[in-house]
Amino acid sequence: MTAYIVRRILYAIPILLGVNILTFALFFVVNSPDDMARVHLGVKRVTPEAIDNWKSEHGYDRPLLFNSKEAGLEKITDTIFFQHSARLFVFDFGQSDDGRDIGYDISQRMWASLAIALPTFIVGVLINITFALLLAFFRGSLFDISGVILCVILMSISGLFYIIGGQYLLSKLWHLVPISGYDSGVNALKFLVLPVIIGVIGGIGAGTRLYRTFYLEEINKDYVRTARAKGLSELQVLFRHVLKNAMIPILTGVVVVIPLLFIGSLIMESFFGIPGLGSYTIDAINSQDFAIVRAMVFLGSVLYILGLVLTDISYTLVDPRVRLN
Amino acid sequence: MGYMKALAAGLMLMQSVLALAAWNNPYPGVDAKKNILYTAFAERPKHLDPVRSYSSNEYAFIAQIYEPPFQYHYLKRPYQLEALTAETVPVPSYYDKHQRRLPENAIAAQVAYSVYTIRLRQGIHYQPHPAFAKNKDGGFRYHPLGESDLDDINALSDFRESDTRELIAADYVYQIKRIADPKLHSPIYSVMAEYIVGLRELADNIKQARQQQKDSVGRYLDLNQFPLDGVSVIDRYTYEIKIKGKYPQFLYWMAMPFFAPIPQEADIFFSQPGMKEKNLTLNWYTVGTGPYMLTVNDPNRKMVMERNPHYHDDFYPSEGEPGDADTGLLTDAGKRLPFIDKVVFSLEKEGIPYWNKFLQGYYDRSGISAESFDQAIKVSTGGDMELTEDMRAKGIRLLTSVAASTYYFGFNMLDPVVGGYSERSRKLRQAISIALDFEERISIFLNGRGIPAQGPLPPGIFGYSSGQDGMNPYVYDWKQRRAQRKSIEDARKLLEQAGYPNGRDAETGKPLLLYFDTTGTGPEEKAKLDWMRKQFEKLNIELVIRNTDYNRFQDKMQNGSAQMFEWGWNADYPDPENFLFLLYGGNKKVGNNGENASNYENPEFDALFRRMKDMDNTPERFRIIDAMMEIARRDAPWVWGFHPKQFTLQHQWMFNSKPNLMANNTLKYARLDPEVRAQHRERWNQPVLWPIVLLLLLVVVSLVPVVISYRRREYGTKP
Has domain B59-288 been given CATH number 3.40.50.10840? Predict the structure, then answer.
């Protein structure tokens, strides 16, 4: 397995390089360094001299990808791409264009993202599994049909509606939780209730339907029929046999997103004023802060690759037939 | 029966717990009755360094912390400068090119230099700050620091020791030198370099030194080693600034945070290795002499300012405008400032949560967004805006003021069709000026929050005239004692005289096609653009919308390829020069990179501007401004657009609020009654429990058939 993991990490390097180049190209197709300087210097009394100063200060006065004026290796290294992107591979995110240390900001903000994403994820998965099991147990019944219809309805509603509706009902009308905000430590709990509830409800429809499909697939297999023939109760069949075997496809979807929980939710964090990495990314895009955008895209790619590796490893844990080589 | 009793008891217990504190209170319960002001910020500040900061969302913080030598009187109108840390507002001394002293009323042409001598009040001290902390041997406690000294430091509050120091003249001089530091990108450097003697040379010297220092990035560069000819320390409490020519507006600049003092110790402290990596910089951590100091600095979540324990003597004004006493604005006259102990700013990006928290009493003040306008404001039978019954029932009060801003529709004067100074192009612009009905636009898109502009000057600025005297006669007629927009027939006649009868070129017969460049996107912007098209359709002119992103739009403006556009300007200071310079030829965007986005250049206007800009506010200056307005209105380089009206709501427990469009350091005047606020918050935020009970009951009820069904399936029996 070690060789497999090492190989996957080595595969990740060209992928990350490609992601970096793509992010770089997309960003600079839309924005020139002059544009970035203008956004950061504001709209009033900005002179060409100030723009040149800003570019020089932030290292955007070099050529983008190839420096024909330099000799040797510096043709490549003395470029915006190399100077701003190469350090990412050692997780040195550098400074944002307004002078803040990105690594420090990420380390501070990821906890807020996790504070929402982790409970939403855990509670959501547990509820989805339970509800899907119930539907599978009562498959074909009125309960099952009603459940599936409910899931489709839940899936069809926009996430924004849940947020605004949740804020209106729970906060504005019933005064049960703060409408938005965040605090550190235990004080954060009251701010997390609403986004977590909304996140869980918003995910029930899709999650339950998917897991129900997995269960139904398993339920019709021969080993389940054998289990029933042995005289096991339906609950025993579901929990001892069906659930365990359906965990493999469930794990595919679940484990891969675990590392991405750090990245946070763009909309949720914005609406609830949560200072996480989602709102960090949105703010950076709005302010054309390439340093942060590049760092967050890179981080997202690393975490996604990590998620895929973890998924592969988790297969070996839940299914003894799978071997990584 | 027993279950029901237990349930009832549980509910009663819950209710009694809930009565103690509101569940939806976003703040700690123990702070409920404390003298704390709660407000919000929508956008993360980018810079808190007064040498860089140039936006209102940043001034909301730094203007309470940093103190320039002068400030605007809080209550008096028109706006007046008064001393803040200075003893008085100085009268400049004028000198000719031979260094001979000139009289106070010397005309600008004679004046080669103006000298401002600023004498500071003694005994003003900085807020507690680790940069001032000293060892027993008298050396600084935290500079220089060793490599490992920052291991446990993540915020400024992690430094255990702090101290203060008296404010001295050298701190102001140091800050002026910082304006010239290219590394700091001060937005006013280019303007100040035109005036402050030696500032440009200083910038060159610093730039050279920084180049030589490049190998040792982050090392402190002592700006005091570089001379600045025009600025000098006279004694511990006095400094002098020498500027080129006569520039009365310079005093206004000195009332802005750019001219606030920075203690050199703080700059040295934050320049130490390892500080920047932890975001410990002067750009994020403030050190001032103002009424408040920043104690929590988390721009991602909240910023907290607390009373500066060393704040100097400062008292609520005893004089104001007529009527201020009647509205209670002089009740606190002569009382020591500030009134509020702590100010909590929470990051609130979305308008809906902000508005709802205001209605719940968790924010003390609020603006009015488009979504909440109808809920807050109604139009009375007399056409006035007033609060709705709901707002009045809550004791909410409305404050309105016309902003010292102007938003206009500009023509690019370099454009071959709409630009130029021929009679033809002038009449075309005048026709469009009539057709673009800004009264309608204010009504539809601003809910009436604005007044149509008659020229570039907003109300409250010297040179502005109201009534018939201030009316733009090229667009309006004075009828029934008010300015009424000329008819569309008048516009069509002008269009015909311009050579476009019925919107067609008389020579070629081709329809007139005009282009409007904009960055607007989204449904609301689309509605505005549709409205714009309709205005041009009145003249049978086809308007082509060229929608582009902000960067491309800026490029077009820079190289003069936009034909028509919309732009705006917020006043830096209350002087007509700050608006009329937007039309001065020397400030053209194309070629001069100035703020004259229309690239308007009329020699007559420019000559008058040069005369007017250095004058004191005399009747003669007023007459010159009138003449300039007449020229500009006739040439019509802008459709004069509108001046926005600001609406602010505040709760009944807030006092001493008066809109002041020039002053940013107004928090120190605000007073609140925390007891009244706590009572209202409790009354408005009682938790509603029945939905929880209903939900529990629903879960139980829905489980019953599930259990029954399960038992039937498993055991084939009824429970």
Answer: no
